[in-house]
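dumping this here before i forget
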Amino acid sequence: MLKPLVALVGLLALAACTGPNLSTQISSVRFANGAKPQGVARSNRDLAEDFLELTFGLESGVELDALLRYEKPIRIYLRGTGLAAYRPDVEALISRLRQEAELDIAETNDPDEAQIFIEAVPTGQINRFFPDAACFILPGDITWRQFRRSKSGSVMRWSEQETLESAVVFLPLDTTPQDVRDCINEEITQALGPANDLYRLPDSIWNDDNFYGAPTPFDMLILRALYQPELQSGMTKQQVAAQLGPILNRINPKGRNVARKRRAPESNEWADQIESALSQTATRSERRTGAARAVNIAANMNPVDHRLGVSKLTSGRLGLRVDLTEAARDFSDAYVLFKSQFGLDNIRTAQAAVHVAALALGNEQYDLAIKLADRHIPTALEQQNAILVAGLLSIKAEALLLQGNTTEAQETRLDSLRWARYGFGDNDGALAREQAALTAFLSAENG
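structure:
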């Protein structure tokens, strides 16, 4: 039934489906660490606008009166039990922040020396206060027990700070390791000062669409700019804006002579609808309605940007068991949109590709499924998304098996399991979750 549609996607994808050799890529379940500052090849004037929105705005809509950052070396303390397994991930992030953002930041075993505290909290308890949040940060050194017992008016607020003295990151451990690592990356970097999230940002971890699980060159550039000597806590937005041009021209030469681009602004209307679509507390009908409205709003943005692809992908995921033809069309549209906007070597394109590859597998287009997996696994590896790597490998293994290539299928399945363990956690649970996700997808496709 879906072969004509998926074949069209195949024609679009196979035009550039030659990628790097994967034999040297999938050699370890640890991702690469930091590098030197990379910079961002877009207008420094656009980047200055992004900087001001990230550092002077909050997700609540509140505008800060003054810049906030730490005015002394930053030390991170892991508080409580259960976090030892994630110490290498914290250390890897610290290494990147030191190298790419050039921050004076390190871990400490002495809580009296710390500015940023990380504390593990059961997911259920977080959801009691923030139903749709995986993790969050608060200013000040407050424990979870103190937070639970406090009245809302007694909790410190970002808008009440004159400088950053301390902050605490609350994250869950009773979820997938991938989610915990993503929380570590996002919340620690936001605890450094850029406390806002902007859906309009195409290449940032500070975007609640959650496509990026590790800080990007854009994020590192913003942090590097924030801690330049010309800036300090207490400066007004106008004072900071006056300094940003020279700062960015110095630290981001890639953006010096780049023309500004017309960009659609942040849309609260779109954000409300996509959050309804992604909500774990909304009904399936409410979620599908939110996704449909998000598609319509994004399609009318001027100019259209990645938010249309996000809307299409969300709509497709929610519609798999309702209207498979429409869901496949949504996945196809998302893949084409992301590919045209960002190219093939982008995590957004790879996230759409796993759905197109699964549909190709279900339509017996095994070569296409394998080529899509091979093309997008390197991007998933680069962006530290173990679950996406496992999913693409699982699809490839199934396609190889159905082609009769039993030996390579088994080797690929083992690779998939290794990454599933890293992303999902326990050995048996990793395999069960990976297989269940693929089986559910293909059963929906064949139903």
